[in-house]
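User: Hi! Is it possible to get a structure for several chains at once, not just one? Here's what I have:
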Amino acid sequence: MTELSEIGEFGLIEKLAKDIKITNKSTIKGIGDDAAVLNLSNNLTVVTTDMLIEGVHFDLGYVPLRHLGYKSVVVNISDVYAMNAKPKQITVSIAVSNRFPYEAIEELYEGIKAACENYKVDIIGGDTSSSHKGIAISITAIGEVEKDKVVYRNTANAGDLICVSGDLGAAYVGLQLLEREKYIYQENPKIQPNLSGHEYILQKQLKPEARYDIINFFNSNNIVPTSMIDISDGLSSEIIHICSQFGLGCDIYEDKIPIAQQTIDMSLEFNIDPIVTALSGGEDYELLFTVSPEDVEKIKANNLISIIGNITKSNDMNLIAKDGTKIPMTAQGWNAMR
Amino acid sequence: MTELSEIGEFGLIEKLAKDIKITNKSTIKGIGDDAAVLNLSNNLTVVTTDMLIEGVHFDLGYVPLRHLGYKSVVVNISDVYAMNAKPKQITVSIAVSNRFPYEAIEELYEGIKAACENYKVDIIGGDTSSSHKGIAISITAIGEVEKDKVVYRNTANAGDLICVSGDLGAAYVGLQLLEREKYIYQENPKIQPNLSGHEYILQKQLKPEARYDIINFFNSNNIVPTSMIDISDGLSSEIIHICSQFGLGCDIYEDKIPIAQQTIDMSLEFNIDPIVTALSGGEDYELLFTVSPEDVEKIKANNLISIIGNITKSNDMNLIAKDGTKIPMTAQGWNAMR
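Assistant: Yes, the chains can be modeled jointly so their relative placement is included. Here is the combined structure:
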């Protein structure tokens, strides 16, 4: 194992940056100067940033560093897709305490690089520094979108259909499972964690993917959603942003909300109603969007998308239960401050 | 005082963001969606990022939060100027432990906003989160430059003049003074810190400015430096980047290096040769650049700029002492990892 203090800041940057390749035409100059240089003409540019703190956003007790690196890129890229844009560049800043050897940082970076390769994104810069305790990762992502295709979160119209990609709640129960197994292991280290049969919910928690497939589908089918947001804090929290214009509400149908079987099973194991998991569980990184009714046939043809309700002319956001009763929806999403 | 946990993450973002105004034409959409949206056509875009960690980059024992906020913007903007670009947008991510009340974060943000106002930069997004300990600030700055005016650090030519803005070493001795007075105060809290007469070196440490005046001077005098870098790690460390092309070296003249009287006095008080302070002290945020000999008269007319040497056809970087002896220069700059 190599002590970070042996390598020093410049040595660390050099080691981490040595095999970073530039693949996007808009990246003129990446790592190595005071700033990166980009040529982003004609299109609009989107910029988003996220910070992940050890002990707050992740627990190295069960999160492999490689997965952490991968996920920290994906959460930013997901925000770029939520603007209907394509991610092109990221900057990566990392602060680590000297308790980590160089090899740990390298593993984290392996995950970052793997995500960049998968999503065809260039690493154009960043910062490395020491911290007193733990790891902090701050990533900024830059993307491009044609001028008439950018999609905001608050531009839905009454009558639009509300859609969601994939399924909801899996990452949340994946986290609950990891926390439970960690607790059991701490109580009795002889008991091996029992994770088999739960691969899907664990993957959604540990190594989520961002929905490039949905953005590509929009593009190749000439669909521009009327509004869009990515689900990081839970459906019931995100729908508020979609309905934030005065006089707009929604009806969401409980039986239309997509939930994977593993999510249902694990919710029941934890005595949580699966619909609560789907509404309030965080970190899904699925896309929540609205489309004009004229696009309904195109949307129905894609089995990765569920139509879960519609935008209404009212100020009420309702969940329509299976028996037809209307339940007012309130945000119960994940809140990093509490 | 208001507990952060009372306000919550969304409340905090709302409070901090409420009076943020957008002034740049290229900012289409700032805070409030999954990502900010920019229209950066025609010009090149530069992107830079910096992370500041409590206890590593700053000590709240003597750094007021407002100054910290101001400085954390300035260090990024300085990197944008070092590309001969104009800063336009920043994202701001902050992680804070719950030991800080809301009012402390507000004060930090006041400084961030004051810097943005001074430098005409829009805050377009960011992230707030809790941390287990201390404050971490990560800022990404975006700037614009005309396609034929971007200046890199490694493009100097033999015969070019080496120039520096302002004076060097002040921030370093300012830090030494603050550390000394903190130590004295800790030993005996009855002794008040003695800081009067040292305003210049303290300001260079606590509330530095980035050299927009130099970039404006280049622009209005049709000067494009042949290379440029900002001095954050000390002159002797940065000159290596300027001379990094094979077969290029430099002669730097000791008696041409600009050092303020307060810096000289404080260096001597600490028994440090002032030239060592100027060569190796960090955090100057002055610009180090080279110009073609044909621009020499224009440069000489600006008394904010000192010509300190020239690029040579050799692989040696020399400091020419006052008595004419040549001393090989080596990097002794500040290294955040050690």
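Chain B touches chain A through 72 residues (CB under 8 Å). The longest strand of chain B covers residues 86-96.

User: Great, thank you!
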